[in-house]
Specification:
CATH topology of the largest domain in chain A: Tetracycline Repressor, domain 2
Shape of chain A: elongated
Number of domains of chain A: 2
CATH architecture of the largest domain in chain A: Orthogonal Bundle
Order of helices and strands of chain A: HHHHHHHHH
Distance between the termini of chain A: 63 Å
Helix content of chain A: over 70%
CATH class of the largest domain in chain A: Mainly Alpha
Largest sheet of chain A: none
CATH superfamily of the largest domain in chain A: Tetracycline Repressor, domain 2
Largest interface: A-B, 35 and 35 residues
Oligomer: homodimer
Radius of gyration of chain A: 20 Å
DNA sequence: CTTAAAAAATGAACTCATTCAATCTTTTTC
DNA sequence: GAAAAAGATTGAATGAGTTCATTTTTTAAG
């Protein structure tokens, strides 16, 4: 009842997560050994595995924290978006992209995405997938908002359009992290080009 | 000059690829050990690594063969597509999806996709990425063809539209293989819904 | 306070993927 | 056709992730 056990658990969990995140940042994912993470967190290797199913899992956990921040920042844009469809979409998406490399390297993104695909049933992969779904919803909600405002034509399936725009940007982001040489600006330009036809076509003519 | 060495090399390569593909199908990717693959192919473990960089690599190789078949089948559709935009897109995409699970399980797709993300510089990952690009091009070419025929409005950026449609279907396929419970029909229906707004909007009014 | 039961932590042992120095085979040279 | 060079094969050794029987710590019961 005292909760000593619960407190220790939360504390260990925090230490492990912080140890892993810092090590990943310092030496990269591959070179960070479980033994090292455990040592820095002051727990045993076995204990690490009581908290995380495997090495990929803890990376997905750190990436998930990052995605949550992006979601939060996106809220502000969706609440008060620019008036034209193209600009609104672009501002939201560019914000996603800008956030992406602040704390995480391309290598970390690659490993996290690969892990969440390979083990879709581990708890943190589920969480990552869920966050992806919330990002997708955010884009759909933006389109719906623009529709209510009259910037997007009535009768358009805003959810379908939002999903397509999100899936496109997500796939482009995947290509971006796969290509170590690609610049953030290139990614943004390409996605902007892809969004233009859709944005123009769904917009009410006079606001185009 | 005799080419004995080249012949032996090709033969060993074929044996390794067949051994791996059959083992993956029989026991799944994770349970198929390199040692087992090597034994079935009648080579040593070391030789396996002379032909493939790592375990993921050979899976991506088997998947690549599959994608090439899909590409080939897609050609026929692009050469002589249905007349309406929506139908043409849907026929091509459904064909991609129908082919996908003939030889490969969802687990194999997951691992292949994860590997191609995690090690984008290995030769077979490059090849997988390149095939993905060709699939993307195929969709774009279909849209261009429809535009030439007059089914798609002139002035539309056909390449951008094709890329967006492809990235969307690719991401949806990824969600599909991540969810062991999702049926192929569900995938098709969802993508069809997503494609509708885009297809309708880019179509010339009277052909809609 | 003592004891029993439950929960967690531990690290040595285990499993594989991967490497590499030694060996063998094929090709080229003279 | 013998010898040297080049190209491939081999499998034992390596190393990192993961497991699990044992031990320790915490909680609950009497």
């Amino acid at each position: 009842m005292t909760g000593l056990r619960a407190k220790q658990k939360a504390d260990r969990n925090r230490r492990i997560l912080e140890a892993a995140a810092s090590l990943f940042r310092e030496v990269g994912y591959d070179s960070a050994r479980i033994e090292d993470i455990a040592e820095r967190a002051e727990v045993s290797v076995g204990t690490f595995y009581n908290y995380y199913e495997n090495k990929g899992d803890i990376l997905v956990a750190t990436v998930s924290m990052e995605v949550e921040e992006v979601l939060e920042a996106g809220k502000a844009i969706v609440e008060n978006p620019p008036s034209t469809t193209l600009e609104a979409l672009q501002v939201l998406i560019d914000q996603y992209f800008d956030h992406s490399l602040v704390y995480l390297s391309k290598e970390m993104w690659r490993t996290a995405m690969a892990t969440s695909i390979q083990q879709p049933d581990s708890p943190f992969s589920r969480r990552y997938t869920e966050l992806d779904g919330r990002l997708c919803d955010q884009v759909s909600i933006l389109v719906q908002k623009l529709q209510l405002r009259g910037a997007v034509m009535p009768g358009i399936d805003a959810v379908a359009v939002g999903q397509m725009a999100f899936n496109n940007l997500n796939m482009m982001f995947l290509e971006f992290v796969k290509d170590e040489a690609m610049a953030l600006e290139t990614l943004k330009e390409r996605v902007a080009r892809q969004n233009r036809p859709l944005a123009v076509l769904i917009s009410t003519p006079r606001m185009q």
